[in-house]
Design brief:
single chain; about 475 residues; alpha+beta; Phosphorylase Kinase, domain 1; Transferase(Phosphotransferase), domain 1; 3 domains; 5-stranded antiparallel beta sheet
Length: about 475
Amino acid sequence: MKSSYASLKDLLPLMQNKQAKIKIKLQASQNYEESCTCNQMSCVICSRKRSSSMISLKPLKHSIIIDQGKIEKQGVAQLQGLISRKLSKQSSNQLLQQTYYGGKLNYDQKDSSTNSSTWLLSKSHSRKISLDNYSQKETIQLKTSQQQITTISRLTFRFIYVIGKGGFGKVWRVEMKQTKKEFALKEMIKAKIISKRSVNSVMNEKFLLEHLRHPFIVNMHFAFQDKENLYLVLDLLRGGDLRFHICKLKRFTEDQAKFFACCMLLALQYLHSNGIIHRDLKPENLVFDKDGFLHLTDLGVARLNKDSIANDTSGTPGYMAPEVMCRLEHSYPVDYYALGVILYEILIGKRPYNGKNRQEIREQILAKQASIKEGTPNISSKAIDFINRLLIRKPQQRLGFSGIEEIIHHSWLKGVQWAKLLNKEMKSLYIPGCIDGNSDFQNQISADSEIEEDCQSLLRRKSVQSLFDGYKFQ
């Protein structure tokens, strides 16, 4: 066997053994990254390709292995055509990679953030709902930002004012100086994260957000850190969270509640289709844009469904499903239970189970099944059935246990125009406007609590700073 950059005609006299294989190296004018196209049963790349619907984007050496017998049988001209077709496939695969996978290698995820469509299950089949306008617009904006900004830091942004308060720090309204585009910047103090033993939580949130993009979740655009803080740069939503509006109005109409439920279901459907359980669905984590569409945020305690999470009771007690409260294995139905609690609260004016702490709420859940009584004023029987079935304590009997399509196809949601809602082509039944600057909203934001000195001293250690390695996204 001999390798050469000569033509096939030059290689023919060198062939003596009938079983020999000639390795022809092609010196292409461009570098190609492609999936193997030899289609041999013994080829590891091809067998992996056959077992997956995604294209393998691992870079391969630019070589083609051809049997000598095949050369003698087909002739040089035919083989030159074969090589030409292989190069054409390489070009096509490269274009496909750049168009649909953003040039990222080995990005194997169903309904990924770079896809231009998402899926909703219908009664007979899955139907594709276009997100082309949203995805293309966001992709162009992101690429423009990345081209103009090489290094992201605090100095990249102009801090306008505080719009929220989290467990680890403030949320700011900021403006990127070069592009003049506004974002929400979540500033998290490392010392607080360490003192609350939440390093895994913040790292997990960043990891999940960098693989997700959807019109009904709060998407991440950048992530960076300095010695004292972590920073997440997110979509700016100026309508305030659902908790603020519940405190302001106490109750909503049934039609408004249905609209909110549909927004939440679109966000949950996207997360669940990517194997993610949110596990902390509550009014504080649902934020309005100025047009009245709800967006889901805070993936700090979200987990992949494949992980064993029986002993993990993270979440907020008032919205925590019974199986989580009792430290049992749990899955997507915990999010549907929380949806039922939120709908109960915005229609009735209080949560189904109330208590001063987790133990009191747990005892109430175990003592009695909460439900809305038939005939409750201003609530239809279909809405009552929908909420009561979401609040069932046993997850096996809960609406949605067999899949989110059970919820989508409930009679209360019959007639919902999911495609128009997904593309935000319909008008919300509740318009909050831009409220992040008004005094009532600002009064909700409490002052910073002091950080313990020993926690601050920890940040001087390299071993502590290494806990946040990889906290970067651009």
